[in-house]
Amino acid sequence: MVMTTRNRASLLPDAVGSVLDQDFGDFELVVSDNWSTDRTAEVLRGFDDPRVKAVRPPQMLAQPDGWEFALGHARGEYLAFLGDDDALCAGALGRVAEVAGPTRAPVVAWDPGFYYYDQWYEPARANTIELFGCSGTVREVASRETLRWLFTGQGMPLPGVNTPPLIITSAYRADVVERLRRRNGGFFLPIHCDISACVAILTQTDRYLHLNDALSLRGKGEGNCSYELYRAPRGGSHVTELGDAGRLRHVTLDSVTLWNLTCETMLRMKALMPAELADLDVPPEHYLAKQEEDLWVLRRGGVDVSGELGELRRAVGRLGREERARLRRAWGGAARWGPRSAARWAIDRWPALSRLEQLIRGPAGEWAWVRKKVVIRGGEAGFAGIRECARWLDDKVRAELHQVDLGRGEGVPGRGKIVTGNPWKVL
Q1: pTM (predicted TM-score)
Q2: Which of 61, 213, 239, 395 has a Cα-to-Cα distance from 255 of 20 to 30 A?
Q3: What domains lie within the chain, and their CATH numbers?
Q4: Pick from 236, 261, 232: which is nearest to 249 by CA?
């Protein structure tokens, strides 16, 4: 298990503690302290466990280099990665070992849960978790189909497969990772090192195993990369610290959104691995549709994106007729680039028209592609904090939550009522 941290002394005990809570004991945890100036070093010294290995780079490193440094100190047959604001759920490592063991699968991936800290910018989500399935089923997935989905948006997801094998939701066999480090000069490459590692690993195996179970929680709070990207001022240290390596060179638009950084990273990987990714590209209509999606999430969060929406609208105007038709189909046939789009542009320019937004946006059915969620509120279920939540979400509870997801109950016995659907009305 590999982790990097910087100035997260308040969060680190929960992240490290969730690993030490595992009932599977054959692991090591490498924690790289990237030149923290808070109490991080003291916190790490407080873990009296020989399986915790604390390291420190010779100088402060940008995010991809920080992960690469930590990776260089890991020893073991499988490598898994955990954010310093994330947590492993009870029984996670044992379940991964059980799935990977018989075949020595090169990759075992799973679907995460999302835990919202009290500092998340949407107060209604504080101390809640959201899950997208806990059936416990294992599916063999074609790597090429996942790559095609990442680049084009076509194909995936399969039933029970909601996410690609990202670093923080996967275990990779160490020999496969080492092969990529030698081939590409590193495993974690900018801008979005989670995506670069995922794309690279998918080129090395025909198929991988996906476990439909929430084995880890991704923490969402102040300082989280997603938080920085969706609140003003945008960009965040993980992009600006890259300097020239953080510049957008391969994408059409220069907006700092999660999708734009993801797309830039995928196109860089295509340039780095041309033989392996020769048949894959990002269609213009897919690129623009995803970019608009991210910009509207930002706008609903109170960020002024009127200039960026205008730039996007001009890019759409440069599309050919067939590309524009494909763009409309990408949004389920909604006429997003006709009069409705013009009205949205006007609303962006003149805030006094904002009351018309709901009329312009259309009925909720326009957003029917939002995945079904199971939402658990900590106050009702009896947990406070991500580590408590990870302990609560053991294999028995996850199995009971699967029954809720199937419509066979309203909650976990003694744990409170569970909400399904999309109660926050956000994308």
Answers
A1: 0.87
A2: 61
A3: 1-281+372-427 (3.90.550.10)
A4: 261
